[in-house]
Design goal:
Radius of gyration: 23 Å
Helix content: 40-55%
CATH topology of the largest domain: Rossmann fold
Strand content: 15-25%
Shape: globular
Strand order of the largest sheet: 4-5-2-1-7-9-10-11
Structural class: alpha/beta
Number of domains: 2
Largest sheet: 8 strands, mixed
């Protein structure tokens, strides 16, 4: 990074709230939160741009109420048609006044680091309708606009009078089309337009960068890999170990380092069916804990194996403690939890014997990094970015080979020396993706773009 760039006034950056607005979060929401933290620490002012369906009006109090109100009204068909008719001229976002007059302490604490918040009603839904109708990206704007719009997902929208850069995490809908429910033709058209017209393209691994260059025909100079960082809150990571162990035992009846863990969305690319099959074949005495939402409702991975789901409430410890434990065979048991808040999930990761994450393909594989950062051994797959992120810090297997996954589970269950080997190497490997290194890569990216 040049000294001239360091002396320049830092550009204001807009980050979209497309995934941030989702109630239970996503890996991309984690990416957006980490991005906002690092940009702020680099000295940038950060605007958040949401597309929540809120009531229009000039009253500041009602505007703030509407932003924090979960029971937002649906958009009616006449409104969609009216907005489509006016969208060729662009959509203007309005600033959300955070006055402190309403009591929303927990919700405000969950907002990413920011300077200002803007909202354009149903912006992202409208952008897709606009793209299907007119074949081009929707333009949005707001008063005193940002210098850079950093879209954290390939959305068909751009910010007026700003450098527009887009993060494409992966091309899984095109590389493994049978593992997602995306409209593949629309996904291709949006990504292709980004690749042709964006000011710059960001991605999170060399594997994804290669895919973007090869599948979309992009010049390598227009794509930057910044990787990611696992930036878990200090008050969660810094909790006393004995306290964490006690929480896991009392809430879930699970003993410290005596269970295996999978966490993530339950969808075909996560390979949960083979994980369960391998676990059952291993005949280990430690339970397998599966934490994740079924995002592909028709997936047969769990249904065919007879695993019953349990809908836990983030705010009800009793419901969490009563999680369904389904005995699949006399030698093994599987615990299924649909959702956990970050603090509980982090405690489960810390206390697990190993995280089992041999997914079929990842653009980055954040669960691998989070587990290594928390000094928990990892079993992961040899496809996609998993081996790139894990390096020698994880037990790597062929994700399509059930016998290989079985062998890994059995060896880590029975060999304490091997377990500690991967705990040590994984913890060291995670340092390559520290917030400090991520911040340096972001600074280099913005210097290149500007």
């Amino acid at each position: 990074m040049s000294q001239d760039f360091l002396r320049m006034p830092k550009p204001r950056v807009m980050i979209d709230g497309y995934n941030l607005a989702m109630e239970k979060g996503t890996g991309i929401a984690t990416y957006a939160r980490n991005l906002s933290v690092q940009l702020t620490q680099l000295g940038h002012k950060v605007d958040l741009l949401y597309g929540l369906r809120t009531l229009a009006g000039k009253n500041d109090l009602l505007a703030e109420v509407g932003f924090f109100d979960p029971s937002r009204r649906p958009t009616t068909a006449p409104e969609v048609l009216r907005r489509l008719a006016t969208s060729p001229f662009g959509v203007r976002a309005k600033q959300v006044p955070i006055t402190g007059k309403i009591i929303a302490t927990n919700l405000k604490e969950n907002l990413p680091t920011h300077d200002r918040i803007y909202n354009a009603s149903d912006l992202f839904g409208l952008s897709y309708s606009h793209f299907r109708t007119y074949g081009r990206f929707l333009t949005t704007s707001y008063e005193t606009t940002a210098d850079v719009a950093h879209w954290t997902y390939p959305l068909p929208v751009k910010l007026k009078n700003a450098a527009n850069i887009y993060t494409i995490h992966d091309l899984v809908p095109l590389r493994l089309p049978y593992t997602t429910l995306d409209n593949k033709k629309e996904f291709f058209r949006i990504v292709k337009r980004i690749c042709d017209h964006a000011d710059h393209i960001v991605t999170v691994s060399e594997v994804s960068k290669r895919d973007i260059i090869e599948l979309m025909g992009v010049d390598a100079s227009r794509v930057t890999n910044t990787y990611q960082a696992a930036s878990l809150p200090a008050h969660i990571v810094g909790r006393d170990e004995d306290e964490v162990i006690n929480d896991v035992e009392s809430l879930f009846s699970l003993e410290h380092k005596k269970y295996f863990l999978f966490f993530g969305a339950i969808e075909p690319k996560k390979n949960v069916g083979r994980i369960v099959e391998a676990y059952l074949a291993s005949h280990v005495k430690e339970p397998l804990v599966i934490v994740g939402q079924m995002v592909w409702k028709n997936s047969s991975d769990l249904r065919l194996l007879g695993i019953k789901s349990h809908n836990s409430s983030a705010g009800d410890a009793n419901q969490v403690a009563d999680a369904t434990i389904t005995t699949i065979s006399r030698a093994s048991s599987i615990v299924r939890l649909e959702y956990l808040p970050l603090g509980m999930l982090t405690s489960l990761i810390r206390c697990a014997r190993a995280v089992v994450f041999p997914s079929l393909y990842e653009g980055f594989g954040l669960p691998v990094l989070e587990a290594m950062q928390l000094r928990t051994a990892v079993i992961t797959g040899s496809e996609g970015a998993n081996p790139e992120i894990a390096g020698d810090g994880a037990y790597i297997v062929d994700p399509y080979n059930v016998a290989a996954i079985t062998r890994a589970i059995r060896e880590l269950a029975n060999d304490d020396h091997l377990l500690h080997h991967y705990e040590e190497l994984g913890s060291e490997r995670a340092k390559l993706f520290s917030p400090e290194k991520y911040s340096e890569r972001l600074a280099n990216l913005y210097e290149k773009v500007l």
